[in-house]
């Protein structure tokens, strides 16, 4: 019996041993790109057995980067992950017979060797590297002085533009967000990032089209891509504190102060920023240089304070920010406009002055939670509160002839007629004159939130997603206004129009959406995608206007002057013709179906959205009390095709079609004459519009020659677009505007960018060429036939920016030139044709002197030619300079002297042209001044290498800073 028992035990042990050896195990995980955190779709995943590296199992990752290998036996293995454009990753794997599955978590891939091919010598670092649809810029290839902020670096990037309002375009695409190591910085706010991120913390900058949260998680292309600028922090700088503080004072009572403190530790970020300045710095001012971009329209003083954080664990990502902002803007402007008419043009001139104060608080939060390998939850709330206070005064006049033919400055004589002057050189051509004054106050509250929950149903791409959003807004404003309009044409048969009014305009709105998406794999790397979204919108506005001119018939004996409070009994004087109530209810259904095909060389995504809509408008104004309902059916096709010739060459084509409906109020047959010189009417016969947008993009890069080329072309056109048909009253000088459908509006643009290093890598050349053609159609009123004639205005623009740079480790010198040539043609009024052009040329230099001193200067001549108004044809020679001295241990402190527009030639002129008019505006501003600035940098990093990187200033990547247009050569025109 004992022998039998022992044999049985031995047999069971052997059986168990054999079973254990044959037990199979499931291996799973996810593959992502280390830089963007985007999933690596269709990466090759192989499991190799040790020690002979024999193939055991393999699979391609899903569209979201997930993989689950076929079951294998217990033992020692190595996981090999390959992905085009990235380094091959090897992960040791020990599979135990005690477990039925092995979860490897997230596997990150680093950019491949060809992507990282950078010269060790700073002077030979490639300026730009192309990786599929991502452009990667090396910050060490561009020079900025000590303490320079991100904006100065962006200005130097090939194809980058920053306008006066701080909006950034790279290769014609507007940057919507700024990221730091893949995390949003202050909610991605571009201006805040430009002003506060120091160049000497940045290793690389990447620009790419970031997918929406929905597309990133599900792989379903919802067409909501946005161009972002993603910054990679230098190695070692994510282990401590760094920041800077500065204070500056200058001539013309200019001042600026700044404080910025950052703590980056591993996967956590914290930033605190604050500033106060009156140099028109609309973001946060920075140390080590003067203002960067400035809004030229007036003088603006700002105060700002903000905090931002981001942290990440294996399963949870948190981030958010809070910001306070105060701005005080004082603007004075003169305007000259010419309206094209069939029977002689109309001319209008105006002077205006205003002051606007705005206070705003904003807070946002972001949570992304991955409770398990199959589920992803994203929550984004946001709240904002603001107050505003404004005052404005203006004077204007309309003429039936060009006033510049009579006097050199017509704006000096606009309203002398109101002052009792008998000497009026413009009397013969006057049509009307107007004075107005107003002040207003308002406050607004808004809140919104979005929740997205995704569940992966298998490893082949099947998933389901719910997404919900909610938003709420509450705005309230009141305005006091006073105006006097006088008519000079005897045919007008109108007396002076005097108005004194008090207006309240409360509005409320809210909306919510519920969306469900589903993705089904139907073949290898081929997915059907379905989406349904319901949206409800509600808005309510109730404008009430009261006359403050007493009505004797009502026994009112009070008299109101501008600046007085509301008189007793003003409620009895409600103007029903100028008051209105509107309530909108909007129901939208969006049904989308698409096909997504992913292959090694190409990716194709196409689909269509069907959008039945129902809208109800309750409208009350004067004698009109109506309810309007509308049921429409829109559709929106889209195509996105990408072909990858190699890891550095790609072709991409996108097409998007969109149907849009005219606003409900435009469909009402009502008249709004609250402004007697600008009367608006509705049009019940308006048709829906349909827009087409196509884009073709190609780029390539040669790493050995450090040579990159990129080209793209855009075509946009609209069928049944809505334009304003304007009827001009020659007697009063006023216009009546009515929306009408029109065909023929389209625009085409082409761009070619080229950058290369020469054989001697210290020399580089950058070229950016572009051409744009705009075909704009409108209606011109024909006073003889009393009908509107269709007019076509075309503008063909050619532009070229070219610069060459020499750079070594202590000296940089750049020559640059640009030209923009415009061919403007007007079909019905060819006498308005002109060929204006602007050109500029100049040089800049940055020199690192002994004793930790740096010198930066540039000079650029901006010229305008070809304008019918001779005063516009002028040169502006803009010269800026800065000298900076570093001192204290580690060059922690800098004192700099900055001079802007030394020759006092910069102007603040803007110009616009449409199919029915052209205008020129000039604003006040202080462009020429000097500033003395002291800056101190705090660098407390976890290792010596990082401290060295941060302190290595001057030519560790950047360029001099300057006012609007920066040290890149002043403001273009």
From TrEMBL:
UniProt keyword annotations, A-Z: Signal
Stretch list, region Disordered: 950-973
SUPFAM superfamilies: Carboxypeptidase regulatory domain-like (SSF49464), Porins (SSF56935)
Coiled-coil blocks: none
Compositional bias annotation for Gly residues: 955-973
Domain Outer membrane protein beta-barrel intervals: 456-808
Signal peptide start and end residues: 1-20
Protein name, UniProt field: CarboxypepD_reg-like domain-containing protein
Species whose genome carries this gene: Bacteroides xylanisolvens
Organism ancestry: Bacteria, Pseudomonadati, Bacteroidota, Bacteroidia, Bacteroidales
């Amino acid at each position: 019996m004992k022998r039998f028992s022992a044999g049985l035990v031995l047999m069971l042990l052997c059986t168990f041993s054999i079973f254990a050896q044959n037990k199979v195990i499931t291996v799973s995980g996810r593959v992502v790109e280390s830089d963007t955190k985007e999933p690596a779709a269709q990466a090759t995943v192989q499991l190799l057995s040790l020690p002979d590296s024999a193939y055991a199992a393999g699979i391609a990752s899903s569209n979201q980067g997930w993989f689950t290998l076929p079951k294998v036996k217990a033992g020692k293995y190595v996981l090999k992950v390959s992905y085009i454009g990235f380094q091959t990753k090897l992960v040791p794997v020990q599979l135990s017979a005690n477990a039925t599955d092995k979860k490897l978590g997230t596997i990150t891939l680093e950019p491949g060797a060809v992507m990282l091919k950078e010269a060790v010598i700073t002077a030979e670092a490639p300026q730009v590297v192309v990786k599929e649809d991502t452009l990667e810029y090396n910050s060490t290839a561009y020079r900025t002085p000590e303490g320079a902020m991100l904006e100065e670096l962006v200005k130097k990037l090939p194809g980058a533009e920053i306008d006066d309002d701080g909006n950034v375009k790279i290769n014609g695409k507007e940057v919507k967000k700024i990221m730091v190591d893949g995390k949003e910085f202050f909610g991605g706010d571009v201006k805040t990032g430009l002003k506060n991120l120091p160049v000497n913390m940045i290793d690389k900058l990447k620009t790419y089209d970031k997918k929406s949260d929905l597309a990133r998680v599900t792989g379903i292309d919802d067409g909501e891509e946005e161009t972002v600028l993603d910054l990679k922090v230098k190695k070692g700088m994510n282990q401590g504190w760094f920041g800077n503080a500065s204070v500056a004072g200058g001539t013309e009572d200019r001042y600026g102060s700044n404080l910025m403190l950052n703590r980056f530790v591993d996967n956590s970020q914290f930033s605190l920023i604050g500033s106060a300045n009156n140099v028109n710095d609309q973001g946060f001012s920075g140390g080590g240089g003067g203002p960067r971009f400035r809004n030229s329209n007036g003088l603006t003083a700002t105060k700002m304070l903000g905090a931002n954080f981001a942290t990440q664990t294996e399963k949870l990502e948190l981030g958010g920010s809070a910001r306070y902002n105060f701005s005080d803007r004082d603007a004075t402007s003169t305007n000259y406009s010419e309206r094209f008419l069939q029977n002689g043009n109309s001319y209008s001139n105006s002077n205006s002055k205003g002051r606007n104060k705005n206070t705003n608080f904003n807070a946002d939060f972001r949570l992304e939670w991955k409770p398990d390998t199959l589920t992803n939850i994203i929550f984004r709330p946001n709240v904002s509160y603001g107050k505003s206070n404004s005052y404005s005064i203006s004077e204007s006049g309309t003429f039936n002839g060009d006033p510049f033919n009579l006097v050199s400055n017509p704006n000096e004589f606009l309203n002398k007629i109101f002052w009792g002057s008998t000497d009026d050189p413009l009397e013969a051509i006057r049509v009307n004159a107007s004075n107005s004054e107003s002040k207003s106050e308002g406050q607004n509250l808004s809140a919104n939130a979005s929740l997205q929950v995704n569940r992966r149903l298998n490893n082949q791409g099947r998933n389901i997603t719910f997404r919900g959003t909610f938003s709420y807004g509450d705005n309230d404003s009141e305005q006091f206004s006073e105006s006097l309009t006088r008519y000079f044409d005897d045919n007008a048969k109108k007396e002076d129009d005097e108005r004194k009014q008090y207006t309240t305009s409360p509005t409320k709105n809210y909306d919510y959406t519920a969306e469900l998406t589903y993705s089904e794999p139907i073949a290898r790397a081929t997915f059907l995608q379905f989406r349904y979204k319901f949206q409800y919108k509600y808005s309510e506005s109730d404008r009430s206007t009261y006359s403050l001119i007493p009505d004797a018939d009502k026994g009112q004996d009070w008299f109101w002057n501008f600046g007085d409070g509301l008189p007793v009994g003003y409620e009895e004087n409600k103007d029903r013709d100028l008051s209105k109530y509107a309530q909108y209810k909007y129901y939208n259904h969006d049904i989308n179906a698409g096909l997504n095909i992913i292959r090694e060389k190409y990716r194709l995504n196409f689909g269509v959205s069907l959008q039945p809509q129902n809208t109800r408008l309750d409208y009350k104004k004067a004698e009109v009390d109506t309810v309007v309902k509308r049921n429409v059916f829109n559709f929106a096709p889209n195509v996105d095709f990408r072909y990858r010739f190699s890891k550095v060459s790609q072709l991409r084509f996108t097409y998007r079609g969109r149907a849009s409906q005219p606003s409900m109020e435009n469909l009402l047959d009502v008249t709004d004459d609250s402004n007697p010189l600008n009367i608006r009417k509705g049009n019940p016969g308006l048709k829906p519009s349909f827009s087409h947008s196509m884009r073709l993009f190609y780029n390539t890069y040669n790493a050995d020659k450090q040579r990159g080329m990129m080209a793209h072309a855009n075509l946009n056109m609209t069928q049944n677009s809505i334009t304003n048909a304007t009827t001009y009253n020659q007697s009063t000088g006023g216009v009546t505007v009515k929306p009408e459908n029109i065909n023929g509006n389209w625009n085409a643009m082409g761009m070619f960018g080229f950058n290369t290093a020469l054989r001697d890598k210290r020399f580089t050349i950058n070229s950016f060429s572009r051409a744009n053609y705009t075909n704009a159609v409108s209606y011109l009123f024909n006073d003889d036939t009393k009908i509107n004639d269709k007019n076509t205005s075309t503008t063909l623009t050619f532009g070229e920016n070219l610069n060459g740079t020499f750079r070594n480790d202590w000296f940089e010198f750049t020559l640059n030139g640009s030209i923009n040539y415009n061919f403007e043609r007007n079909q019905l009024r060819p006498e308005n044709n002109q060929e204006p052009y602007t050109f500029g040329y100049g040089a800049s230099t940055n020199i690192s002197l002994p004793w930790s001193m740096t010198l930066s200067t540039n000079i650029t001549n901006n010229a305008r030619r070809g304008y019918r108004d001779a005063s516009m044809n002028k040169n502006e020679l803009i010269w800026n300079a800065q000298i900076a001295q570093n001192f204290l241990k580690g060059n922690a402190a800098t004192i700099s002297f900055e001079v802007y527009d030394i020759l006092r030639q910069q102007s603040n002129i803007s110009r616009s042209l449409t199919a029915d008019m052209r205008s020129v505006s000039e604003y006040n501003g202080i462009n020429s001044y000097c500033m003395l600035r002291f800056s101190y940098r705090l660098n407390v990093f976890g290792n010596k290498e990082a401290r060295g990187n941060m302190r290595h200033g001057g030519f560790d990547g950047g360029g001099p800073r300057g006012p609007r247009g920066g040290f890149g050569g002043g403001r273009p025109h």
